[in-house]
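Researcher: Please predict.
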Amino acid sequence: MAEPEIDVVAIGNAIVDVLSQADDGFLETHGLAKGVMTLIDASGAEGLYAAMGPGVEMSGGSAANTVAGLASFGGSAGFIGKVRDDQLGAVFSHDIRSLGVSFTTAPATEGAATARCLILVTPDAQRTLNTYLGACTVLGPDDIDPETISAAKVIYLEGYLWDPPGAKQAFRKAMDIARKAGRKVALSLSDPFCVDRYREEFHALVTDGVDLLFANEAELISLYEAESFDEALQQIRGHCEVAALTRGDKGSVVVSGDEVHVIDAEPVARLVDTTGAGDLYAAGFLFGYTQGEDLARCGRLGGLAASEVISHFGARPETPLKALL
């Protein structure tokens, strides 16, 4: 069996983020659920964009943020996701390639526009995401290149993309290729919203198809419909090889069989924007994992990356993460 040539290949939504500051009153006026991700249609995206204050545009998408962070550590990464051949599609493609991430997915030439996520950041640094998926929804199994999947140590799947039927087929194809090539499969649960919609399917994936699970406290509790984090923690043990579980300012817990590591959060001088905290935690963890570090060290690297990204606006590092090591 050939040795892997790249650390991580991620499959996820190719999105351009628009970040703007807002207060709780704005969220209430527009009926927005604070701190979660909500899917909106094209007209909803246009209306909300018009109502928002001044915004900053930058490439995003959960799994794309993760491989951007991994590349910032010095790891090698690829990304599979769908954009349209429009202006925002060109922005996304340029941005991710400029970071050293391989991105070769062919853009759609017709249909919906490139996806965008309208992110409202309140003074308490919470982020409320409103996502128009656009071209992301046409990602399908034909976009999965077997050579690319087989070349990676880890395939990282974004739970946000577990909605369109074509994307599910793409995920299952990638998982099958990875399994046959002896590679690891990682899944991020992404959001309690996703877990609520696909609890049974995620259960089956975690039990049967996933080696590494990434979830925050709310997502894990939702997955097992548990009363507490500790109760959910007992249920995840033994269901996958490794579970990396984030708890905000409480740090993280990494579980692998009987092995449990409780890792304190990295100190942050000023909390500005929690957008991308989970994505960058996964970046640091996967960087350590693919470099052969022990699980406690992987968790600490995840915390380090998360602490950098929440100290400024935006979901990608401003300081090269390799320098923080």
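Model: The longest strand covers residues 15-21.
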